[in-house]
# Entry
Amino acid sequence: MQVEQDLLAKNDRIAAVNRARLDATHTLAVNLMSSPGSGKTTLLCRTLELLKGQTPLAVVEGDQQTSFDADRIRATGVPAHQVNTGAVCHLDASMLLGSFELQAPPEGGILFIENVGNLVCPAGFDLGEHKKVVVVSVTEGEDKPLKYPYMFAKADLVLVNKVDLLPHLDFDLERLMGYLAQIRPEATVLKVSARSGEGMESWLAWLGEARSAIA
Amino acid sequence: MQVEQDLLAKNDRIAAVNRARLDATHTLAVNLMSSPGSGKTTLLCRTLELLKGQTPLAVVEGDQQTSFDADRIRATGVPAHQVNTGAVCHLDASMLLGSFELQAPPEGGILFIENVGNLVCPAGFDLGEHKKVVVVSVTEGEDKPLKYPYMFAKADLVLVNKVDLLPHLDFDLERLMGYLAQIRPEATVLKVSARSGEGMESWLAWLGEARSAIA
# Structure
């Protein structure tokens, strides 16, 4: 459909502007995407608690409605800019560009962008970020990579969250890993629990490497 | 945006055709919507097992990719038509109309339509169904009704799924109920577990009442 192609081409041009801006301030930008309820915000809050004081940080929060998530982020002491997308099902590059006018990317630090909870639409829109991270929780079923392939096919990192719940679930982690390998063999996969803290060190190490690569 | 309004107006006209067709065969059509991983398919399979033999049944399965869910439905013995939406994030009325050419609505029975796992986009598209059912699982966080208000604002019934996991979660069911009451006080809310069977009788009773209303 022509309308859609024009829209994506425009988005890509704005994404390139964002990327240049982020590179100029040596800011690593990480786009966090997942289903609603995968635990992205809890994981992000825990991450901010561990990084703050050592690394300049900021967050852009995308939600259809409410500023609940931005409020949770601000409670950690890290600045957050809320984008309410209304009827729109994803963040786009112009929304991120607009956020820079109100909240500058943290120089030499990390900008976390928490996308709208949606495994379909955000996959199509480059924001100019350096890394795409998909969070999938073990309560969601093993088949998500095959059912939502566009999302997983672009992931640099997949965080398998809520692993503390595994003893209470009929969840086959090996099956999930096999499906991920089919769709995106290049992605790094880390098991984490924002609640128990399991895997947080590996996730922070991954962020550290990504920062080094753009410094 | 004009394009979007034209699209929705066209969709509504096709939805009206679908509704007339379903009414003519006294088929109750139920549109099941949720996040990815809320347990819709497992809940639906269990529902079909309980209803089959008593009620004519069929399923239309919407997924971005794969026929995993349709295969799970067919394993219950109930016919299923798979719609793969590709890059599209929701079912629309024309997709349902197309399905009728390949799988007739079950006369005097129930047609379950399992929408694409997505709490944003399916809310905008009337399919011509009689009832909209939103499934939300207790692993997803209490704030979903306020964060995805368009979806919850149209729900006739909210099924709160996976309640067997409540002892292992930090989940405040009362808080969820309060938010639901703010967004959609008219909706019926039922707690269910597809795994333990809790609440399935109430859900079947709700379906029975909905069938009586259109017979």
